[in-house]
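Notes from the 1:1 (GR / supervisor)

We went over the backlog. Supervisor wanted to see one worked example end to end before approving the batch request, so GR pasted a single chain during the call. The sequence is below; no edits were made to it. Supervisor asked that the structure be written out right there so they could see what the output format looks like.
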Amino acid sequence: MRPANATLARLGVSLVLLGVIAWQLDARALRDAFVAPAPGWLLLALAISVPQVVLSAWRWRLTARRMGLTLPLRRAVAEYYVATFLNQVLPGGVIGDASRAWRHARSSSDRPRAWRAVIIERLSGQLMLALIAIVGLLASPTLRDSVLSGLARLGNAPVVLTTGIIVLSGLAIWGYRRPPTWLRDTLGDLSTALVASRMWLWQCLSSLGVVASYIAVYAITARAIGADIDLATLLPLIPPVLMVMAIPLSVAGWGLRESAAALVWIGAGLDPAQGVAISLIYGVIVLISSLPGAWLLCHRRRQRRDHDTSAGAPLTSKSGGGCHAR
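Structure output shown during the call:
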């Protein structure tokens, strides 16, 4: 029952947040923000999703190979498509990544390392996204001033921040002096696959390409519905919205993403209904782009069913050609 309860809870979070947004925003403004998307822009966004998945899979393969694991690029691309689809349709947004880690671990000689390879690969992308979000925040005076004024209203924010730094520093010192086995192994793999030698450069370049593709798709979505925002204003708004999607409290980020978009658009002095409309269309585009993963899942299930059927069938004579030795 616990997984079922967690699923219902995350689904409930998405529905409640979307309901609150619909209730708070002006219905007419939200309706006006939904302009029929231009097909050309939508096709361009879907086209960008293909190299996006391939580059993400290449980053995963690079990480795994650096850790001494075997992972062909073709398999990595297929697994990434399946994981992307599962992340879109299952609550939490991380079940797909857990599934590809599990499948890779089953065929690997070092199962814990296969799991850590997926974690490190995702961490590489999230760090780059956070870095770009900080740069965008510094480049947008309106958004920066809005964030600073919001922090100023939190009187205890400096105290909380200082306490958090002290606690994290204490944990880091304890982990360095007396690291448990799992932490020692994880830190070793992080050093090997993320920051050692030239790996940091390849990780940065690949993650920059992946994050840039996500931002490009979001910006194209804004153009698809006719949002009249210049790129200098639009681009800094996108990374914070994308970062919220990584929080595993909803279904594929639905509700959380739209809430973040509304707040970010308000902080930038723009119409929040427009930000929500862009976010909703973006979610649909991401779901459509993940459908090859659904096809791969159906194809694999059909292959397993055919294999089980042939394995359970009685052997025929060699001349009949009904069974071939392998």
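Supervisor's comment: The CA atoms of residues 169 and 175 lie 10 Å apart.
Batch request approved.
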